[in-house]
Give the backbone structure.
Amino acid sequence: MQSGLKKTKEWIIEFNFDSTLKKDVLMGWNSSNDTKKQLNLSFSNLDDAISWCNSNGFAYSVVETLPKKIKPKSYTSNFSNQRRTSWTH
């Protein structure tokens, strides 16, 4: 399978990890009083995301990812004569 480009054109706001996690004794789950770590906000462009951070008083840093290089593949390439190794089930 090849990964598509769906939802890769959005800007996402993620909050910092909360280090005040507590372990629930009965179930063993992590719990916290801070619910911001459960949120991801997405915006269609960078300017909207920055203006939201500024209007709500959040400090931000912009992390841009490099464009992903996709090498086209197909099922028939498994049976190609130019393969370096043999293909078996």
About this structure: The beta strands are 11-14, 22-23, 30-31, 40-43. The mean pLDDT is 80. The chain has one helix and four strands.
